[in-house]
Amino acid sequence: MNYCDKIHYHIYTTNLAPFDVMVDALLAQLPKEEQILRLTFFGKPADNEQYVARRIILREKIRKYYGNNEPVLSYVSQPPLNVGLILEAHSFIPEASDHLTFRRYNGFPYVTLVNQDGRYLFTGGFHGDVINGC
What we know:
Elements: H1 3-6, E1 7-14, H2 19-28, E2 35-43, H3 48-66, E3 72-77, E4 85-92, E5 99-105, E6 108-115, E7 118-122
Parallel strand pairs: 2-3
Antiparallel strand pairs: 1-4, 2-4, 5-6, 6-7
Helix pairs in contact: 2-3
């Protein structure tokens, strides 16, 4: 089977609530039987300072939830339509010939997948921390 056919894309939403409650609600919806490779949250922070604070909350919750198998994480400042927060998840059910590795480089998690189809790199979360930049 082609590797690309094995990647599952799921979109999850939650109603408006405190940010940490929304994150927990979204994480609870993720499939337990699949290996999560990438998580992208879409939300509407009030300003750059709140964006940075929420990104830290996300990173801490994901690390606590996944431990050493931390998926790639991104937080996109994009207002969700008619919901509080949106989560796009990319997941995978590995077969015996698939080798997944979860690592970090300079604090950024990344995932590699090696199988007979090739070697794949999943990254995300690249951002600046300048709150009052141009």
